[in-house]
Amino acid sequence: MRFSKALTALAFAAVALASDVLDLTPDSFDELVNPEPLMLVEFFAPWCGHCKALAPHYEEAATVLKEKGIKLAKVNCVDEADLCQKNGVQGYPTLRVYRNGEHVQYAGPRTSEGIVSYMTKQSLPAVGSIDKTTFDEFKVADKIVALAFVDSASDALAAEFNATANKHRDDYLFGITTDKEVFEAAGVKPPAVILYRKFDEAVTEYPYPISSLTSADLEGWIKDLAVPVLDQVNAENYQVYAQSGKPLAYLFLDPSDAKKDEYLELVKPVAAKYKGKVNFVWIDGIQFGDHAKSLNLPEAKWPSFVLQDLTKQLKYPYDQSKALDAEDIDALVEGYLEGKLEPSLKSQAVPEEQAESVFELVGKQFDEVVFDDSKDVFVEFYAPWCGHCKRLKATWDSLGDRYADVKDRLVIAKMDATENDLPPSVPFRIAGFPTLKFKKAGSKEFIDYDGDRTLESLVTFIEENASNSLEKRNETAPPPPESESEAQEPLGHHDEL
Ligand SMILES: *[C@@H]1O[C@H](CO)[C@@H](O)[C@H](O)[C@H]1NC(C)=O
Ligand SMILES: *[C@@H]1O[C@H](CO)[C@@H](O)[C@H](O)[C@H]1NC(C)=O
Ligand SMILES: *[C@@H]1O[C@H](CO)[C@@H](O)[C@H](O)[C@H]1NC(C)=O
User: Fold this and answer.
1) Mean pLDDT of the chain
2) Can you name the CATH fold of 230-337?
């Protein structure tokens, strides 16, 4: 028994020694990663279960891919915490495909075969060489196809085009042609880039001076055109809009409405006019009624229209008592872009009395209470459905009780962030529940509370950070019922989108 264990240990040691996975450190990272035309890097933590499950597959894939000249590497984020932080690693494992130091997320499977196949495909040219025989088929081979027309494949334009193609090889289809017959068939004079799409305009030529085109210009241009003028949004494509960060204008419709297409035709010209500045979508109002409500469209009445500033989380609904009108929608969007429009702020009614020691904050009172410079303020932003918030309640109540005597100097508050919007004057947005924010008396800044959610830690935090004197506090408050984890629930928990 002991003998075989020793043997196993030896065998493991041998495997570890023979590993084809490179270990990266702060000293070697740039030196080893930057020169590689293609490399897969795993950022991992030794305690992470998914990382452990991946490890043997990763080793095996590294051995197979070594033959093809593709390297696999890893970074231990416990030993090299700074390196991982510098690289913006937020979860484990994080897998990235690097090309000469530039990376994209690895989007393949996590089995050895899957890794080998994905990385092998990544090593093939991202750009197909197109001639007369393949042109007709190629330009309709995908939803979005980019084709570069050049006199020579070694042109500067070809290099920029290839760089974009390498970066977006998983997103769009790319081709290059030097064939004069293709120029003729397409009616194009090189150098040129054309985007073929299966929606909106089928053929779009790059409209800016092509001689100075960089891969970044090309990337921006394709990304804009990849978003249809007025597509239906749903769980599958929502991320495309969220990631673009651009304001999102929603047309809520009842899909069974006989006039649905009429409404779409009404909004489409406005959507086309603001293309590139504001993304327009239509959405099923029946299925996503809760989403409409969260965007401050109180009535389940379709069609309805609302513009949302995704970065600031501000909402600009179209008056639901008015009929949908293209000119009014245009005016709303223009007013927003010019910064002339006030966002709609949802708020519960101001409570007639504050019955408990924790202050019940609503949107309408936010400025008055939180920006009262004579007080230290500690606010919990919660959602009624959030389990972590429910578990925090007893502790938060005890905290209120503890400082009930010094209410004039320290306000312990809570706000239902699903029923109350933050005013635009607030420099942060809520990204998960619960969110705990502390503001010192006299200060404009909000301090995040990220500590553990025990009464003891919350009290220590307050005592260390409050500007006002907190003497006369209530020491008789009972201890909290249980200790808490630091977990937070995502914002969209109950939103289908
Ligand atoms: C761009 O890619 C094409 C197709 O793979 C290749 O033939 C061409 O040499 C590349 N050009 C440059 C400048 O990298
Ligand atoms: C007080 O606030 C600072 C942030 O400004 C934080 O680093 C510190 O940990 C806080 N004190 C306690 C006891 O948590
Ligand atoms: C002190 O805390 C206890 C327990 O929560 C509470 O019953 C009592 O009313 C508080 N005292 C004051 C003066 O607020």
Assistant:
1) 90
2) Glutaredoxin (3.40.30)
